[in-house]
Amino acid sequence: MFKRIRSDHFISDEYHDHNGTDCGDEYHKSSPQAFLFGKSSYVQESDLPAVLLVKLRDLSKRDRTEDEKKHKILRKLFVMTWDSQLKPVAKSSHRIEES
Hints:
This protein is an alpha+beta fold and 99 residues long. It contains three helices and two strands.
């Protein structure tokens, strides 16, 4: 299944050089080496909508059957994202304290 996965990993450029332990904020660490399916790339936050639009448009047209092409049916896409504030927000909302 993984050989059929097309994936890209983008990190907002504001987090450039925030790898490992070189950033003082616990939640501002990007780890491009941890991306499972390929290489990561840094993108300016202002460029991200255009970059994603091009990628999604391209992916929605890949590997379609002749019937899908004829009827202009695009592929359905599954997009996974990660929010660096998810962990602290979840901890706060459930009143969880680290020991």
